[in-house]
Amino acid sequence: MRIYVDADACPVVKETEQVAKKARQSKKKVHLKGPDKRTRADNEKFADGLARLLEIARNSDGLA
Question: pTM for this one?
Answer without folding.
Answer: 0.43
